[in-house]
Amino acid sequence: MSRLSPLNLPGDIPHYSYDRESINIGIVHFGVGNFHRAHQAVYVEKLLEKGDSQWGIAGISLRSSSMKEALEPQDFLYTLAVLDEQRDYRVIGALKDVITAQQDPQAVIDLIAAPSTQIVSSTITEKGYYLASGGVDFGVPPLKAELTSLTSASTIYGFIAQGLIRRAQKFPSSKLTIMCCDNISGGGEFIQEGVHHLLLEHSPETLSWSKTHVSFISSMVDRVSPATTDQLRDDVMRDTGRRDASPVSAEPFSQWIIEDNFAGQRPAFDEAGAVFVTDITPFERMKLSYLNAAHTIASTLGYLSGDVFVHEAIERPDLLSFMRRALYENVMPNAPVPEGYDAATYIEGVIKRFQNSHLPYANLQVGTDSSQKIQQRWFPTIDAALAKNNDVSFFSFALAAWVIFIKTALQNDVLNDPKKVDLQAVGEQTAQGLVEAFFKIAEADKFNFSRDSEFISNVIRDTQDIQNNGLRTALSTFLNNAST
Questions:
Q1: Judgement on whether residues 311 and 236 belong to the same structural domain of the protein
Q2: pLDDT (tens digit per residue) in 149-178
Q3: 0.85 exceeded by the pTM?
Q4: Do 100 and 208 lie in a common domain?
């Protein structure tokens, strides 16, 4: 069996043409999972191919060493498989190293402090930011520990704070940009809040320095990239002749909108297809309110329908109709899109992408951390609709389905959620009891709809219907009533 390596590249598959030995690390990225490797790293790859050699990536895994162990024997090369009607492969060389933070914390700090590092970025998912009540929750044990001492940091905030303290001491004239690439509105502001809070406690002088030498920015990222499966590994081996321990698959579509507020050097990501904007908020809200909201709707209803993948779920005419109508009737009147975009065109593009059967995306993967995700994807739209006295019936049903999804996934022991223990503790309840308990855990009480008695009553009614009759029958009943 032939393992992928710099000395064993597939001859008939596109791969990097630049000298990897001459590439410097300019980006330190927290969360070197599939999405980063299929998205940001591909934009970086294009810059490296253009001869801009200062933007190599060092990936940071906060806890798990699995990515390092998979990629290190192949010098951190990996295969990108773009899956559609035709299958395209490329070997990506932009990732220069992967460091497991808990095993080598000093290496992480040194990288952040290095003046050659111009960007620290992140894709650590919602739960990695420890958000609660609209801000960073310093009451959780990892952050309480970092407030006491930074010597055993475990969060992105602690490592960045330590790196900035060292950078300010050793390289005080250097500048750095911290960039959030997660599906969180205002993610850069949350990182700034967390880091500044720690610096205020441990190094006020670094906090003062950072205000003129460090910027915290957000970006809107979009590309579907499922978890790597053995089937993908086998396909890569069959088609390229090389064994890759951790290939990554993605759809052809890719979008990156970046807040243009860099403290130091700005990579020419626009030459690689990204777009720089002054105000990132409208783009974040569009993706969360339309694409991400629809993904969660499809995966929730799909799982309860017995489907494994998102594309299978929306092959069901009633489920596709529900998702499309939710977007047109409940989202579009309440979630404006940025200038130059057409909401209907965006909706149809989202649906077409979800229908890509060549890129199977598991409903349970989309449903990971859903108690956190719906706070960003559904709740703001519901509040906006109710404030305008607009219809929000599709979301009352979607929330009811989410309640039953949580209950069912718990019963099947497949729920992956940071609030799993709390959700499990709810136990057997009536429909009303489940709604009230699960909503509290998902922090619905921070949103106005939780105090709208009519809306909550509708959610309880729909939950009872799904609980008694099953998702398929309840969905049919809902759509029949929604058509009248």
A1: no
A2: 999 899 999 999 999 999 999 999 999 999
A3: yes
A4: yes
